[in-house]
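Re: that chain you flagged

S.,

Sorry for the slow reply, it's been a week of failed gels. I finally had a moment to sit down with the sequence you sent. For the record, here it is as I used it:
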Amino acid sequence: MTSPLRINGREYAFPTQPVVVVCIDGSEPAYHEKAMAAGRMPYVASLHEQGTHLIAECAMPSFTNPNNVSIVTGVPPRAHGIPGNYFYDPEQGAEVMMNDPRFLQVPTIFAAFENAGVDVAVVTAKDKLRRLLGAGLQKGICFSAERADATTVEDNGITDVLDLVGMPLPSVYSAELSELVLAAGVRLLRERGPRLVYLSLTDYIQHKYAPGTTQADAFYAMLDRYFAELDATGAILVITADHGMNAKTTPDGKPQIVYLQEQLDDWLGPGRTRVVLPITDPYTVHHGALGSFAFLHVDADVDDATRDSIAARIAGLPGVAEVVERSEACRRFELPYERIGDFAVIADKHVVLGTSADRHDLSTLDRPLRSHGGLTEQRVPMIVNRKVTVPEGHRLRNFDAFWLALNYASPVTST
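Prediction finished late last night. Pasting the structure tokens below so you have them in one place:
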């Protein structure tokens, strides 16, 4: 028997059968719970008896990039170095999107297993994640549904993806983008037989529709059908999420936004502080770059007393849950010290943080604002199609997905 691999300080047994982890972007547990109650997810409901239903915590801040990277490295942002979709890079003096593999501080689970001879396949909905998830892969399949019409063997390990799945290229703002990811996963398992598979979806539906709505239940019914097909390949299947999702509005549907940069410029004058919103990415149509977590950078010449005053004043703003100093934020939220601000600002459950009103376009929102990023979006599902026993006292995280599947899931019985 091949010895376990030690990756980023954790041991992983070699896969004797295919292992598939699906990350449902933005999947607050209420989504599948209400869909099951409505009879729309019979396969996932069956896993209460045949498998395991658990609740885990995602990494903070509860955004896409830090959590997807946590899942594929098995460690929190403190270790892998990605604390958000965007960060302020002091070397460049600019805010930078963290989609370049050069920002990764550790190898992925996939790169380590591929180096040990295991076939790997990674499919993500949005192209912003592809390079991070595929970092270090030399032979494995890695592509995004967003660019499924432009894959090459040299760059992605595969071509003709649309022919493979029998679908036209979907809009990036659609439920079909996630469906293409799942369809590709099923076809790859049946035809290529990879042993480690990661399928990362998009939260387009969750940003627009609350749990239990007709549209959300229809989306989760589609997911359920593909989960059953993935199970039918004989794979160990783990279903989790990168973060949850909540309404960020008043009861009558009006956005609740705290514009931090406006407040700070009013107090100290322009140019003394910088608010960085780590939710920022190229896909702002459904959230307007508004999330419930922000980093605040303060100029070096601002004295300690003024810094403390700033933190206290922000903490006193209606809608702000707490302001956490840099060292404490690193300790509590497992963040990399050199890549965050002087303070972390966290909003209340139904509130988002912005910079200034003129920098956020809300005209594209066709429904009440829903978003994520705070502590209230940390609860995520961890559903396995096999019985698993979590070690006693272990704090279950979404980035335990491959660790659970490879080390603790009961074997798949041959038929």
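What I noticed first: Residues 5-245+374-407 form a domain with the Alkaline Phosphatase, subunit A fold (CATH 3.40.720.10).

Talk soon,
D.
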